[in-house]
Amino acid sequence: MIRKNVLYEKLKEAVDSVLPIALIVSVLCFFFVPVESGLLLAFLVGTAMIIVGMALFTLGSEQSMSQIGILIGARLTKSRNIWLILLLSFIMGVVITVAEPDLQVLATNVPAIDRTALIFTVSVGVGLFLMVSMVRILLGIPLRWLLLVFYGAVFALTALSDPGFLSVSFDSGGVTTGPMTVPFVMALGVGVASIRSDEKAKDDSFGLVALCSIGPILAVLLLGFLYPGSTGSSSMVIAQFEDSTSLGWGYLEALPEYMMEVASALAPIFVFFILFQFAALRLPMPQLARIMVGIVYTYVGLVLFLTGVNVGFSSLGYVLGGEMVAQGMGMLLVPLAVLMGWFIINAEPAVHVLNKQVEDLTSGAISARAMGLSLCIAVATANGLAMLRVLTGLPILWILIPGYLIALALTFVVPPIFTAIAFDSGGVASGPMTATFMLPFAMGACNVLGGNIMTDAFGLVALVAMMPLITVQVMGAIYVIKLRRSVAPAAQPLPVYGDDEIIELWEVA
To answer: Is 166 among the domain residues?
Structure first.
């Protein structure tokens, strides 16, 4: 049975994430931007489905995916078979990423690439870099140097790639670090790190999220060579609802499709776990039953989430962006995106965990309020820049290259713990609302403006995910300056952490 207080907390988190966008959009549609009544009603129904779906999905993910990762990681540790660890890491990296909800939404919206091909490519990228992460843990390779090498490879490859795939590739890296992938990856890393007996082994178990977000970027850039001449037209289909009954039947008719889709995505995870259970784990029935129930929660939550997103939620975002341009309100896109970005990041529960951790780490020198304010400003700015790109066609590399150069340069300036937090928290800011509403909103505006959706609209998730890399490290630099200027006897030096230590940001109590 679900404990009522746990379900209540998950529902509250989902409401906090979704409600700000729903309220802003409702005010716009009721008083300023005309849209079809059926579409607005579909949006409100979709909002309710997303809230319930997110709550059940996060609850189920914690009860199943996190536990599976911990159990498999511990069992692999006992085997001490390096090749088996690498093989199973690749397989699990692939099958877990396939079920990531934000990736499902992104792949549905990309017009130039086959949906299945994109999901498989991104999943393989995660699997390969999860193997790289395991090698790093076993050999104790510093995280900083791997980030420099692989991001160097990313930006070298951009010079040869189709410009239409640059934005999608960086977006793919942002959407994979979500609630399905991260708990499993982190748990697996902790288990495998225990093979080593040196004092830095635990520190090296972190950094997996940072590396696994690079794999999809490289993989999609390479995929671009198979899809020459990316198109800028949109493939989003907007459902038409004439009355309440057509709306109700529209949702009911969509349910079987997403039930099959989610079943296909979760089936490899389920089969792999069952095989591993009989071959090695042999869990007692109560523990096995709890994991199975968690998988059921995950399944139901994903079905509700994807149905709500695709039938009504994303559709209204797309129509609203286009209608604002058609009504001559194009210049309001930037301030509106800034406003939405502010509320989106402020409502993310994981961001509040991050803020509190930084306050504790600096003994109050950087308050949670100051950290939260800086992240709100950064993510709001990222949303504004994304809409500016829609309006002007500004190339995304003009923003990404300076941004990543600053982030990588800061790794040599700030204490290692701030770098660790920053690069593992890039996915914290790019929550579900960014992929499900803000991206379709940008696509709709871009389509009416006559721009290239692949080059001008995509990239929004990438910009949002890049901001914590800079913001967290800048706050670390501010702390160092404050520490050096302080002459108070009570001032304490920053605790010494390993170069690769990263605090878990995804488990929200």
So the answer is: yes
